[in-house]
Amino acid sequence: MTHTTGHACGTPDGSQVHGPGATGYPDFDWDDLYAGDGSDTADPDLALLTPADDLPPGRALDLGCGAGGNALALAERGWRVTAVDLAPRAIASTRASACARGLDDRVDLAIAGQRRLAA
To answer: Nearest-5° angle of CA 90, CA 119, CA 26?
Structure first.
């Protein structure tokens, strides 16, 4: 992982964090995707979340979290979530939403490409 930004609130803005794992696919600028509102990933995917309703809250890892829809929905259900994305703007959007919803104590954020997580 290149840089862990820590809890959702009280940390530097994600757009200021860079590192070797913060880049991924060279032909696509993922950060530009989130220059807008990030609404494509802001809504949770209920097909993924519904099975979690049958489990006791625990820890979850959301790889490629985008604007944080799934991560925040799990946090609202009592889960402790580590949300990872290679786009600093996606992490900044997730951070802002977590803070606004009072979920900063349940969401940890990291900027990293998934290929770098094992390193």
So the answer is: 50
Dmax over CA atoms of the chain, in Å, equals 40
The CATH number for 80's domain is 3.40.50.150
Q: State which residues form the domain around 21.
A: 3-116
- Residue 27 CA to residue 89 CA, distance in Å, equals 18
Roughly what angle, to the nearest 10 degrees, separates helices 69-76 and 88-100? 30
Whole-prediction pTM = 0.71
CA 13 – CA 59 distance, rounded (Å): 24
Token pair belonging to 5: 């930004």
User: How many Å apart are CA 3 and CA 20, to the nearest integer?
Assistant: 9
| Mean per-residue pLDDT over the chain, rounded | 77
- How many structural domains are present in the chain? 1
